[in-house]
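Q: My labmate handed me this sequence with no annotations at all. I'd like to see what the chain might look like in three dimensions before we decide whether it's worth expressing. Could you predict it?
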Amino acid sequence: MTNSKGSIFVQIASYRDSECTNTIQSLFEQADHPETIFVGLIWQFHEDDTFEPFDNKSCYAKNIRVQKIHCTQSNGVCWARNLTQKLYKNEEFTLQIDSHSRFVKGWDSILKNIYHKISSQGFKKPVISHYPPAFTLDGEYSDIVGKIIPNITEAGLVVFKSVGQKAQESDDSFEITPFVGGGMLFAGKEMITEVPYDPHIYFHGEEIALSARLWTSGYDIFHCDKTILHHLYRRSPITNKDTRTIKTNSDDNESQFKIINTQKRVKHLLGTQLCFDDREALKELDFYSLGKVRTLNEYELFSGVDFKRLYFDSYSANGIYFKELVPVKRSTVKDVIPIDRSYITASQYGFLSELGIRDILHINAARCADFLKYMPKEFSYTGILSEQLLQEQYFHAFTDSNIVFYVQSAKLKYEKSDLIILDLENIIHQNDVWQKLCSIRNSRSKFFMVDISISHTDLTLKPFYLPQPLVILPSSDGRKKFAIWKVDECGLSLYAASEEESKIRNRLLCEVEEILNTLSRAFADNIGILHELLSAIVSNTTSGKFYELINTNPYSIILNDNSNGSKQGLESILRLRLWPHDANTLKQFPYIIDIDHNFISASIVQFIKNQVREY
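A: Here is what I predict for the chain of 615 residues:
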């Protein structure tokens, strides 16, 4: 039985895949310590296949445990992955991959190093996962790592897609996430015995079910931006130079019955739609159930996904998650609605009363419990909710005449109120914040309140420049801070870019990003030439529309429309790091807007293009 320190058990379920041979060869040849690598291979074959899954004469063949199964007996990818785990022999770590992968040099050391760094931060059961960068059979290798985000199918199933991020060189480039991908999944050996693969899931639903089961079992999942391996997503490149294809399971044994049962099973597991009477769909679900360390409600709160209403918030849609929402202690609550219990107290309502506040309008009122627990009877409360959220039974429990809930109007027109509460938790685009602030101004209300403890938007900074709030009220448990502004003192002379203007500026930004990406690639081996080119661009710019800022490493650029070319008082809305290139910075500015300057314009883009072309 294997017990060598640092050993890795690699799980591979291969279905008639001619690339399996190259995958296993790359796995061992690129490892720093191939003697510690052991493979569990489920080889689903057909007698017509003309290839073998690995070279049985190679020096690493003794480290491969293989079980051969005729393809007509196959029951899907999860069934096969469950079988690979039965080949496990006490290795310290486990890595699950697909049978069409290519590894980077030293992949084993990289994964273990990242794992130990995460563990040193207090996470006892880390899981490392992402959607790997692509490669093609023409020999092209991408440097874009896929960060997993949720998606909803027409069948009402939560599945995954990804947003691309440029791969990083550092082993420190990792962040917490609620989701795992089946094509690159690394963890300690406990995962195999504590959260075994569910063999009764046919395909779609595999990853969200496993993610929820891992997280509720106390595992913390991390996305890493470093390339571990490349994945073959497409067999036939656009050039059509290679027409090799893989025979899929659906060619031999696809079953609509199994697909429907999988949907029922996953929906039941996640609480989307219960089906207690369907024994076939729920077969052995007690064994492959959610964990008991954390609740499904807590997972919904952390992931931003509501499985009952099939909704995910804007943080989750952009791959933004917060480790503060990971429960510190073992959960005992089994069925709680995910609303934070940080209340405005009775004494604080007394202060609001002194300000002359009686009627409250709450925008995005999912967290209404923060304000209703101690609200005096003389106050009136109107909560604005989405139509889906308003159907939740929780909100029907409020029957007092002074508490009313309405569906959000698309016109964003707010009624005049003494106090408007603006919940920015699910608003990440600055343009959306502008629009809501403008609606507050147009309502002629007296005050507005924002929870500044959870908001990623500081309204006192650029581009909002609101004054310091009139007062900041702490919540009952001290974890929240509610800032109050007086509307007429704020001025709120705000400007929101139109949808058309935002699209134009987004297009310009994409063009700039493309130019900078081209520069970064073209001069990757000679920073001196890149420096010379950028300096030439700057020195030839008499209008001051293009400025460079050199910090040695990284090399930074600021775009602006400062007509006199002076650095005095320079305020930039876009700062791009070129060396090394940082694509993440771009994603922080989905809308390029400012009330005084047109910081990025077609003239700037054309100017950069001309300078690069001339050089």
